[in-house]
Every structure is written in C-alpha cells, then in structure tokens.
Target: HNH endonuclease 5 domain-containing protein
Amino acid sequence: MPKRPCLICGVLSNDSRCPAHQRRRSTMERSRRAQAVAAHRAQHGNWCPGWQRDAHAADDLTADHVTPVAAGGSESGPLQCLCRSCNSRKRDSIERG
Ligand SMILES: [Zn+2]
Ligand SMILES: [Zn+2]
Model:
C-alpha cells in the first residue's frame, strides 16, 4: 500500500494522517456530536438538509464540523448535521480539494 502524506503535517504514513494526527475523538467530543444530532432530530426529525443535493429523509444522521478539521476548522468548532452519505461526500470533496 502506497504511503500517503498526513493531512496535517505531510509526513508519509499508511493512512491519511500520521500516527500523531490520527483522528482521536474524546468522550466529550463524541457526546457533543450526539447532542448536536439529538437537537437536530428534536427540531427537524429524521431529516438531512442535504450536501450538494436536496434535503431528504434520513435516519442515519451524524454531526460533523461545518469546516472540517482537515480544512483548517477547529476541533471545537460548530457542528452541522447531515446523513452519513452526505457527510462522507462533503468530507471527500473538501479533503480532496
Ligand atoms: Zn501528521
Ligand atoms: Zn443526506
């Protein structure tokens, strides 16, 4: 498997981040995300606002950074709820540039 430069520091490793920059989510960060999803559900129900597509029903909502950490966002920055597939599309498009 070819080595890839770390998104944060550029050091080559087997992943998109070197061991020093692996995504490590603290318990606090996980519960912050869970709360963001719960608040979104309470307000909108199982509804994804959509990423580069129309809003749609979704029961696999996840919360992620409005500006991903890989794109210069802060780990404690604001969160946005999207379904899993919209979230991963958003992440892919931002991390690929
Ligand atoms: Zn790194
Ligand atoms: Zn979606």
Notes: The pocket of zinc ion (ligand 1) is lined by residues 6, 8-9, 11, 17-18, 20-21 (CB under 6 Å). Residues 27-44 form the longest helix (18 residues). The first strand starts at residue 4 and ends at 5. Residues 30 and 63 are 10 Å apart (CA to CA).
